[in-house]
């Protein structure tokens, strides 16, 4: 029983790290899958298989290496010199994404809770410090609450969509995009997400001694991500093409269930932003400590203040500037991860 409980904690942490602001708002699902029409259902299933396989593989490999941070994994994948440089690029990438998450948290407070953008940033920073300072188990605990809530809202969206006029769009919707774009989308999506998720999945895998527990957690976590992708695609496709014009398309779908439910969903969106934020800050903290030997808490404060300063640029500007660059870097890591050989990694 204890092994299964630990496996579920791993699964929720895995899913919570993947499901960030873009996923919870519906924008990632829309851009990587739904806009490609009926073929997106097949590409989502492919993405799910990749999440199960490579996410589990990463955690097993981290365990076999006894990795202190994702730098140890990257040195194993690319060699000592290239791995060190790749980890440095990853650090910069993680910092950029972490800043985007913080900016997203500030925007949620500003747009939905009638607080200033600055107040939203500061509230997010304070809660983040309180969680991260308690270590990996606190991050796991937060994900164990937020991810089930996200699953619940996905289920609500699906049930409210069944029977509507466009409910079969996910199987019949046409698109004029090329087959290359359609089938490259799941690889880009998985590679980008896993290269950032290694910040927390590597230390998580290294902290669990039992191989079967890691495998169970990876399989369940990857399956949960795939299931939520299918649920989001099913609901969003039913409202295409009109739903594509909204900044937070999932919120428009939830609005059908009433104002109170919509407000709770906004809280879940913030929760998903927050889980990705704390996971990335934790990964950055381990990486900087490994390189410098500095105490953990001053590093956490340094990173939080850095994301606050860069976060002044704004959510949408950061998102459009940084994500395409990170996608290319993620694809290089993805290919190397697929090619890696290790008995422990399977």
UniProtKB/TrEMBL annotation:
- Which keywords does UniProt give here? Membrane, Transmembrane, Transmembrane helix
Q: What is this protein called?
A: Membrane protein YkvI
As given in the record, the signal peptide range reads: none
Instruction: Give the transmembrane ranges.
Output: 36-54, 85-109, 115-132, 139-162, 182-206, 218-241, 261-284, 296-315, 321-339
In terms of InterPro entries, this protein maps to:
YkvI-like (IPR038728)
